[in-house]
Amino acid sequence: FKGLAWLFLGVANKDSLLYDEEFQIYKQQYPDNLRLDYALSREGQLNKKGGKMYIQDKVEEYADEVFERLDQGAHIYFCGLKGMMPGIQDMLKGVCDAKGISYEEWLEKLKHGGQWHVEVY
Q: What pTM, to 2 d.p., does this model score?
């Protein structure tokens, strides 16, 4: 592939990382095309408030770059338990508020452009 695939993966512990061996191989083979960021909620780094590190916290660390890439046409995919989406949406709304952007308009633009993808269960 020619673009950048940036995976934010959230799990409780390192031993729960799915396909980590394969992702590490891809990262070595395609260093300019794959970025990996893990949010380990039961071990490792704490979020900026000193709490557990969840996926929304990890994405927020890179919010400026994520928003810039989305502005340039990148797609964003959310897959997993539906219970994660309120926290993610709250974080995205907070970033929009801090940037002086209407969250509702921003989200509608992504959806209309086919850039917003959610598959939760």
A: 0.91
